[in-house]
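Issue 218. Parser rejects a valid record. Input:
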Amino acid sequence: MKTVKLLVLAALLSLAAGTANSADRAIYPAPGQARADLAAALKTAATTHRRILLDFGGNWCPDCQVLDVYLHDARNKPILDANFVHVHINIGHEDANLDVAAKYGILIKKGVPALAVLSEHGALLYSQRDHQFSAMRTMQSSSVTQFLVQWRPPRAGCSVMVVNC
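Output the parser choked on:
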């Protein structure tokens, strides 16, 4: 019984350490980089026929950190890489790039992370207007999988039900 308690304690400490380290990850570049990153993504998307996933948030945001982990897990990373050009847009402490967010219909006051999907030519296809992803800590990776599959570009012979198509 004592061994089981020690194993549970070790697992909890490991989880806590991993969570603390993820909050230190700088996944959002400096706010001033947003326009250049967006312009580069538009060029890449046009030549590779992928959609653009705009990811609004901040490095201080734990739910943004969880979203990034889910986007890059073993199930979602292949879908993300094959179908999207992913752009992190730093909103500072809700005081930066608000004009970029507004251009794409993102209401930062509803919470972050907030996502928008653009076509390969930059047309807005989806804009998160509520706080669908702002509680990522309580969601599963499968929620991100469903979102990516729903918004990936259509391919001949594929349906929205097939994940690896």
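Fixed in the parser; the record now loads. The two ends are 47 Å apart (CA to CA).
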